[in-house]
Design a protein that fits this description.
two-stranded antiparallel sheet, mainly alpha, Fumarate Reductase Cytochrome B subunit, 2 strands
Length: 214
């Protein structure tokens, strides 16, 4: 077994998954549940800010430099059979999927700070901008919710593709942080510092707190 995902990445992944389920549920229920929807949005924004920072200071496979490739690398990967053969970390196509999801999450959480449904909920920053800006933020929030759900569905389909077509379980490594040695002579992964991860998360939480209470 070889290390692949450090503990901060694994905690981020599963915490985000649980929060997204909660966000869908509270948005569907509406009413007083929207208060929890707002709290969930703040938590997601905290996690996204953490993950963006961790993409520069985290472990080997957490860093954007490890999987954020240009269009040429993605095309070469797609054209080189078998698709999904890259055994360590994110492949070039998966790397773009991660970046797209992070961007969508950032847009969703950020616009939620300004959005309003004119009935039950108003973002904490809506009072600082014009009514027109609130309308735009609300519209983007609604449309991007569909985009985000599509990206999540694509992520789940990719995991199923690897499991059924490539016989590779991608869920287990995201729990244990380790995977069977693929024997591809890849460089050993360096795990991110858990102490640094906690500090980065605390800093992200402090930023979000200052923003939503301003």
């Amino acid at each position: 077994m070889v290390p692949v995902w450090d503990l901060p990445v694994r905690i981020f992944h599963w915490a985000l998954a649980l929060l997204l389920v909660g966000q869908v549920a509270t948005a569907w229920i509406g009413g007083n549940a929207l208060e929890y929807h707002a709290l969930g949005g703040y938590a997601i924004l905290t996690l996204v800010l953490f993950r963006l920072a961790w993409g520069f200071v985290g472990g080997t496979h957490a860093r954007f430099s490890n999987f954020a490739r240009g269009p040429g690398a993605v095309l070469r990967y797609v054209r080189s059979p078998p698709l999904g053969a890259n055994p360590r970390g994110h492949n070039p196509l998966g790397g773009w999927s991660v970046m797209a999801m992070l961007l969508s999450l950032l847009v969703q959480a950020s616009t939620g700070l300004f959005a309003s449904d004119d009935v039950m909920m108003e973002g904490p920053l809506a009072k600082h901008v014009s009514g027109r800006a609130v309308e735009i933020a609300t519209a983007i929030h609604d449309v991007n919710a569909v985009v985000l759900l599509a990206l999540v569905a694509l992520h789940i389909l990719a995991v199923l593709f690897y499991l059924l077509a490539r016989k590779r379980n991608l869920v287990a490594p995201m729990i244990s942080g380790r995977m069977p040695d693929p024997g591809d002579d890849g460089a050993p992964a360096r795990g991110g510092s858990e102490t640094l991860g906690a500090a980065v998360l605390a800093a992200a939480a402090a930023i979000v707190y200052l923003v939503v209470t301003s």
